[in-house]
Specification:
about 140 residues; about 85% helix; mainly alpha; single chain
């Protein structure tokens, strides 16, 4: 299940980046499809992640030394921003759906980079935790 979660995070990051490129090129329908898909994929991720950790609990990081500080710095920033992304994404999506594009753009300038950071660092945490420094 962790690999599925990482794949969902990576897919979300890709959709967000492509969606951003589409809006920069004024391809509004393609932008809407990408961003809606990113939201759907992120929702699937959240459901999968919570279900997995409900059944398995937490996994201990196996790295030693300075890499622990790097890992926990990434993990803590990822976790804090992940908690902020849900309401930010909901407000951003709501404003777009209501046609309040002036307000949508203002919040999207914050939501996009934070959401991308959370998606990418989610994959990094997965790689560090399960592949580079597996639990002891």
């Amino acid at each position: 299940m962790p690999a599925v979660n990482a794949a969902l995070n990576g897919t979300s990051a890709l959709l967000l980046a492509v969606g951003y490129l589409f809006i920069r090129r004024k391809k509004i329908t393609a932008h809407k499809v990408c961003m809606g898909s990113a939201f759907a994929v992120s929702t699937l991720f959240l459901i999968s992640y919570l279900t997995y950790h409900y059944h398995v609990g937490s996994i201990h990081f196996g790295g030693q030394g300075a890499i622990r500080a790097v890992y926990f710095t990434i993990l803590i920033s990822h976790t804090i921003l992940a908690a902020a992304i849900l309401p930010l994404a909901l407000v951003t999506l709501y404003r777009a759906l209501k046609g309040r594009f002036d307000r949508h753009v203002k919040i999207a300038r914050w939501t996009l980079p934070l959401w991308l950071y959370v998606s990418v660092t989610g994959v990094i945490v997965y790689l560090m935790l399960y592949h580079l420094y597996p639990p002891l």
